Amino acid sequence: MLRTRAAQGNALAQNNLGLLYDLGDGVPQDYAVARQWYEQAAAQNHAAAQFNLGLLYANGHGVPQDYAMARQWYEKAAAQGRANALYTLGEMYAHGQGVPQDFAKARQWYEKAAAQGNADARGWFEKAAAQGDTNAQFYLGSLYETGGGVPRNYAEATKWYEKAAARGNADAQFSLGLRYAQGYSVPQDYAKARQWYEKAAAQGHAGAQYKLGQLYHFALGVPQDYAEALKWYEKAAAKRDADAQFSLGLMYATGDGVPQDDVQAYLWYTLAVAHSTGNKQKSAATNRDGALTRRMTPAQIAEAQRLVSEWKPKSK
Hints:
Helix content: over 70%
CATH architecture of the domain at 204-316: Alpha Horseshoe
Strand content: under 5%
Number of helices: 18
CATH class of the domain at 204-316: Mainly Alpha
């Protein structure tokens, strides 16, 4: 039955038949025949078959060992979210198998694998986190927060964020700030939120700088202070943070704590549109920009467009 379905072009059957020959399970072990069936399934974009072909080339089973070919097949499977392919690519970069050793790339693949629930990849992060790697600690926290490959557990997420934040990880500090500001699995506490935002902001974290601006803009746990809000929004906006750019546009459009200035409002709304990643955010900035142009003179619009064209981001 399996062979019949494979011969009829069923990709799952082709892969499973290949696996039987690969392992010698109920049939004589024959890597060449296994490869033929894997190739037919892989040609139909069957991720497991693509991964299995990668294994044949990596191990030199029935073919000359060829890490470049193995990587090609792993990447095809990984592109479909195959967790073991994602993890194996991480292993290739970690150990320099057919590629220059690159721990940064290895980590990227491990992260993707862990998010898909690969236990080996998660184990790698747990080991690194236990040894004090703050990036691994932060990533474990994010896995527990989102339920990425593990049961969602906010207490565990907070625990790992706190470990990483205490060692100076800006992303973890920002995440803790968000939790306290929103009362997300912890009692809402704007004072603690501000403390963590300030630590992350001091390291140049744009998201934390924007959130600090919000605290001062809207008097969230601090006295309202437009000058402080403007300062933090400007720091974040200089790093292409679209939320901060939109907030600056709003302040200048309404004269909220600053002299009302349509040219500056146009500049920041336009940049917010350019740097927005979400449709809702982009739509809001676009609508504000359109309303502005209806009341601006041609000379003001020309000046604003000049400022937009000359604007450059800053890293600090």
